[in-house]
Every structure is written in structure tokens, then in C-alpha cells.
Amino acid sequence: xxxxxxxxxxxxxxxxxxxxxxxxxxxxxxxxxxxxxxxxxxxxxxxxxxxxxxxxxxxxxxxxxxxxxxxxxxxxxxxxxxxxxxxxxxxxxxxxxxxxxxxxxxxxxxxxxxxxxxxxxxxxxxxxxxxxxxxxxxxxxxxxxxxxxxxxxxxxxxxxxxxxxxxxxxxxxxxxxxxxxxxxxxxxxxxxxxxxxxxxxxxxxxxxxxxxxxxxxxxxxxxxxxxxxxxxxxxxxxxxxxxx
Length: 244
Description:
Layout: H1 2-19, H2 35-38, H3 43-67, H4 73-94, H5 106-135, E1 140-143, E2 147-151, E3 158-161, E4 165-171, E5 178-184, E6 188-195, E7 199-206, E8 212-217, E9 220-224, H6 229-243
Parallel strand pairs: 7-9
Antiparallel strand pairs: 1-2, 2-3, 4-8, 5-6, 6-7, 8-9
Helix pairs in contact: 1-3, 3-4, 4-5
């Protein structure tokens, strides 16, 4: 949590430096160009455009980190779309209005446009693919006489021996708290979390389901659920049976 806020603060500082028209050394790609290549760009414009885009992304990231679970799902979609548009926008502007006009051949101009289009399309496509991957995940929970096996999605699996379970309870009044080390997708929460009731605990849950099963084990609390309240209750009764 602290590390994330340190990164956000550093990004904010870098954004302000760039907005002042300085700090071109912070711009990836530009800082590795030769002096002759750098002279083709308006350094102050490039810094300010990059800084503006970076500041917007930093502010949006800070909002996500501040409100956490209270953030509606549509905001995650908006965040992803804005990041894509900002990244593409910076690339286009840096190769258009930030370029110092000179008499170059039409072939070179055409080449630059092709490169920009390829990069833009690549970013959009990869972002769409990642968005689909992270929004379609599911958690699979298998209950047997000896263990309860949880198969995570883009996160490690978790096994609980039945002999380690001390108590199990079903609740619809549960606050997930804050994520300390884990995965938060469009519809899933997985990993290590912390709240007032449990302290540090392990969570494998669907965001839209309000019912939760709390497993009090010898190693600490593990909280799980299914896609719906009905399925979660069925899972709870199934776990109860193997513990009797």
C-alpha cells in the first residue's frame, strides 16, 4: 500500500516537472535519441504534452487506490479507455505538433504515419485483449473429504486441509477491506487482504456476490464465495457436511 503511494507521488512529481517544460530526460525514447534527432522536436511542447498525459493517469490511479472496492466497475473500463487514448494521443502529438517543421520527403512522412498507426493499433489491440482476459475469469472451488481446493485465476491456487478448518460461517455482512498483495480484476478479488474484523486474511471472491463464507483455519482466515448468493449457500452447506 505504502509502496504504491510512493510510486504515485513520484509519478506526480515527474508530471509536474514535465509540465514546466523541463525534464525531457524522463521521456522514454527521446532520452536515447542522438542530438541531431532531438533537434527535430520542440522539447518544451514534448515535455508538456507528456506531462499532461502522465498527470491525468496519475490522478486516475490515485482515485482507484483511494476508493478501492467502492469504485464501480464502469470506472475501471473508463480508466482503461482513457489510458489507451492518452498513450496513443501522446504518440500522435509527439510526432506531429511537437515536430519542428522541415522540408522532408513525402516518403519519410509516410513512413512516420505508418509507424504511428502500427503502434497505436498494437496498443489498442493488446489493451482490448488484456481487458477481455481480466474480465472473464472465474474461481473454481472443489470440496472433498480431505481438503478444499481453490483454483485461482491469474493468481496462485490455495489448498485447505479439512483438519485445519476450525470453524465455518456464512455472512452477507462482510467488508473486504484493502488489498495488501493480490489480484483485483473487473469481477474478481484474490490474494492477501486486510480488514478490521479478520485483520490479515486470504480472499478468493466474486465482487458482485454479497454472500461470503469465512473459514477460520489454524493458519488464519480464508474467505470465499461463488458467483451468486444461492451458489455460495450451497457451497457452505457442502463444506458443513464434510466437517461433521
